[in-house]
Each structure stands twice: as structure tokens, then as C-alpha cells.
């Protein structure tokens, strides 16, 4: 528990703490980006308790920083945490001179929740001076550090990983309803000039119905009643604000015709459930998209595991023209990890068929480790794969 400037919050150890500290030892400026309410401010204020703090969400602070950036920054001779930097995108330009005059590391900590706006502002002005870290919603391994946390798979999928829900023991549906309204009514307008927000919300809901599926912009545009270029632009808006991400298809020189379209995934399963109208675990248990939601959850968990430890891309999915598929491929330097996600509580006999076929394709070129992640509770070592229960995903080292 910490108390700064009258603000009280519960702080758990975040997996990204180590790379944020490391960046602060190596760069004068550290920028922490991620979705709104992913815990950026809480993490930075806990890691740097002696730093002054200013939120550019506050209208008077934002106005001061906009009208008189030099005067604003001069009020922090020892540096500061500047929260939601995308609200004042010209500020990093003025930071450049200050940083060049005093190169002490870790003085300035910036946070931002709109990736493209933050990156454009920071990379143009602070190239070589700033370490950039992404903070995503909580992984399950982080969730378990709260005093109360969901313990069943369906509860985890329904709750999602936004810290405030767990910190305050809030009803996920109530909080996510407000989150979506705030995101669409305010954040979206800041990122893109979208006129009809009701159509955009329909677009977001349609995307939720396609989580875990390959991106088909033509189908998405047709179902929403918009043009294909608009669908492409709107999908970029969702990615810029860390709502969705596209998982690229794996490409290789093996003698197979592989699909090239990426898969669509959401960072947060609770948000997907809310957008699909799923309000309780009974509804989720019988929902036709439960398997796709679970696949997106597994993909997001592994992405969080890697990103929060300083590892970026190198994750894909594999599918050939015959339908043989692995939900995830992690490309390590000396081997491949092939993963399949199955939401059922039992392991069917044919669950390993695709993993065996894909492994055989790389027999002469790459070593493959195969994993089946499922909705059950026991860990097993099979002759052809390691079987991991859903609640052990974050225990494994995917980096």
C-alpha cells in the first residue's frame, strides 16, 4: 500500500518492474505505454516514489503544459513522472533540450495510453534518450497476488486483467461498461476523426465476435456497413489504443502453402466477454465462442509474459492450406515452441494431431517443443507434447 499526494492505491509486484527499473538506469527518459487503466501510473509512482508527479489528464495542468511548456517543465528541476503524455504531444520536444543539458538517467518518466501518439511524439524528439516499455493488463500470474482473485477458468476469462477490477473488487460488467463508454466517447475521438461513434461501437463488437479468427476486412466491413479502407483504419485505432492486436502468420521455407492473413486477438478476455454480451460464468460456459475466447486469452497471456520481460515479437500462428494449425508459434533462436489451446477440461486423443504434423515439417531444420494448454487442472508429460493446465501458463518461461 502506498500513499502519495493523497492518493492511496494497492500495489502488487508487476512483471514489468524489472525492465522499467533497468530502463531508468540506462536512459534519461523512460516511456511506459499501454492501454488505459493497465496500471501504468500506479507502477511508475511505486517504482519512483521520490519523483514529482503531474497528470496531464487534469485540465489545468494540461493547459499550463500546453501554453507554457518551458515554464511547466522548469517546475521539476529534478525530473518528474508525467502521466498521459499524449495529452500534450509537444512536451517531449521541450524535454529534449533539458535532457541534453543534464543526462542523468531515470529523471523523467512518461506514461501514455495511445501508442501511436506517444511513439510519434517520443521517437521524433527523444530518439536515443528514451527507453520504451509496454505495460499490458494483468497476467494471471500477477492477478493471484491480489487478496481476492478469480480461481476458476471461466471467472478469469470473464473478469479480465484490468487492475482496478481486482483492486476494488468491482463487478467486471459494470466497470467494463464504463471503460468502453469512456474509451469510445473520449479516447477514440483523440486518435481518429470518427463521426458516428455508434457505428464504431458496433465495429468493436463485431471484432470481439471474431477474436481468435483470421482477419477478413471485407467481411468485417460488410457486416458493419462501412468501406474496407474504413475497417482497416478503425482496426488500426483499436491497435493504437491497445485493445486488439494482430498475430502474424508464420512463414517458412518448408514445402507447405501457408496462409498469410493474421489472426485478430484482444488483449483482455473480460473486455471480449462484455462486448459479446456475456455477463456471467453460466453464459460463458455454454457460449459458442468460449474456445476462441480461451485461445485469445492464452495468446495474450504469453504475449504479456514476453513483453513484460523485455521480449517483443517472434510469436505467430501456423496454418497451412489444408487446415493444419498451431494456435501459437514462438520462434526462439535455436528452436520453435508450438502451442495448441483447448478450453475443455479433458484432453482428447486427437488433440495432438496438428502439433505432430507441424513438428514433422521441421524435422530436418528446427527442433520443436510442443505444448497443449487446456482448461483442466493436471500437468502431464506426454511422449509428443507437454500438457499444461490453464493456471500454469504463466509459470512457464516463454522467453
Concise overview:
This protein has 17 helices and 16 strands.
Word description of this protein:
Helix 5 packs parallel to helix 6, helix 8 packs across helix 14 (269-275) and helix 11 (197-208) crosses helix 12. It is globular, with a radius of gyration of 22 Å. The strands form 4 sheets. Strands 11-12-13-14-16-15 form a 6-stranded mixed beta sheet, with helices on both faces. Helices cover 41% and strands 18% of the residues. It folds into 2 domains: 2-134, Rossmann fold (3-Layer(aba) Sandwich); 140-395, no CATH class. Mean pLDDT is 91; it is low at 1-9. The chain is built from 17 helices and 16 strands. A hairpin with a 5-residue loop joins strand 11 (315-319) and strand 12 (325-331). The two termini are 30 Å apart. The protein has helices spanning 17-26, 40-47, 59-67, 69-74, 91-101, 115-125, 140-143, 153-159, 163-167, 172-191, 197-208, 217-224, 228-240, 269-275, 281-285, 290-307, 353-361; strands at 2-4, 7-9, 29-33, 52-55, 80-83, 108-112, 130-134, 213-214, 244-247, 263-266, 315-319, 325-331, 335-342, 367-374, 380-381, 386-389. The chain has 399 residues and is an alpha/beta fold.
Task: Describe the structure using short key phrases.
single chain, 399 residues, alpha/beta, Rossmann fold, 5-stranded parallel β-sheet, 16 strands, 41% helix, globular, disordered N terminus
Average the pLDDT over all residues and give the rounded result. Answer: 91
Q: What is the rounded distance between the termini?
A: 30 Å
User: In which range does the helix fraction lie?
Assistant: 40-55%
- How many DSSP helices? 17
Amino acid at each position: 500500500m502506498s500513499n502519495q499526494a493523497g492518493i492511496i492505491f494497492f500495489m502488487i509486484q508487476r512483471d514489468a518492474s524489472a525492465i522499467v527499473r533497468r530502463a531508468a538506469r540506462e536512459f534519461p527518459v523512460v516511456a511506459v505505454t499501454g492501454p488505459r487503466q493497465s496500471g501504468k501510473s500506479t507502477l511508475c509512482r511505486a517504482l519512483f516514489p521520490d519523483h514529482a508527479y503531474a497528470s496531464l489528464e487534469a485540465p489545468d495542468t494540461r493547459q499550463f503544459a500546453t501554453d507554457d511548456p518551458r515554464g511547466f517543465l522548469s517546475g521539476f528541476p529534478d525530473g518528474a513522472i508525467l502521466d498521459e503524455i499524449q495529452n500534450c504531444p509537444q512536451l517531449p520536444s521541450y524535454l529534449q533540450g533539458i535532457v541534453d543539458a543534464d543526462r542523468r538517467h531515470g529523471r523523467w518518466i512518461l506514461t501514455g495510453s495511445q501508442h501511436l501518439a506517444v511513439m510519434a511524439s517520443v521517437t521524433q524528439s527523444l530518439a536515443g534518450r528514451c527507453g520504451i516499455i509496454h505495460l499490458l493488463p494483468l497476467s494471471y500470474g500477477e492477478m493471484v497476488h491480489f487478496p481476492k482473485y478469480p480461481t476458476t477458468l471461466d471467472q478469469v476469462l470473464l473478469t479480465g486483467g484490468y487492475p482496478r477490477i481486482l483492486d476494488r473488487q468491482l463487478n467486471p460488467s459494470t466497470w467494463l461498461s464504463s471503460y468502453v463508454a469512456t474509451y469510445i466517447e473520449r479516447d477514440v475521438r483523440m486518435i481518429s476523426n470518427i463521426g458516428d461513434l455508434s457505428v464504431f461501437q458496433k465495429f468493436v463488437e463485431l471484432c470481439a465476435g471474431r477474436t481468435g479468427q483470421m482477419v477478413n476486412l471485407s467481411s468485417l466491413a460488410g457486416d458493419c456497413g462501412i468501406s474496407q479502407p474504413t475497417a482497416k483504419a478503425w482496426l488500426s485505432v483499436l491497435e493504437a489504443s491497445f485493445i486488439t492486436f494482430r498475430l502474424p502468420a508464420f512463414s517458412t521455407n518448408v514445402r507447405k502453402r501457408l496462409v498469410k492473413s493474421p489472426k485478430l486477438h484482444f488483449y483482455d478476455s473480460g473486455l471480449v466477454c462484455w462486448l459479446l454480451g456475456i455477463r456471467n460464468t453460466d453464459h460463458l460456459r455454454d457460449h459458442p465462442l468460449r474456445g476462441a475466447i480461451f485461445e485469445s486469452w492464452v495468446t495474450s497471456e504469453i504475449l504479456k509474459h514476453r513483453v513484460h520481460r523485455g521480449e517483443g515479437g517472434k510469436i505467430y500462428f501456423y496454418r497451412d492450406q489444408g487446415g493444419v494449425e498451431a494456435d501459437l508459434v514462438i520462434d526462439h533462436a535455436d528452436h520453435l515452441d508450438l502451442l495448441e489451446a483447448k478450453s475443455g477440461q479433458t484432453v482428447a486423443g486427437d488433440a495432438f494431431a496438428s502439433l505432430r504434423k507441424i513438428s514433422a515439417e521441421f524435422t530436418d531444420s528446427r527442433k520443436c517443443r510442443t505444448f497443449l494448454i487446456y482448461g483442466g487442472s493436471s500437468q502431464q508429460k506426454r511422449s509428443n507434447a507437454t500438457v499444461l493446465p490453464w493456471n500454469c501458463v504463466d509459470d512457464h518461461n516463454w522467453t
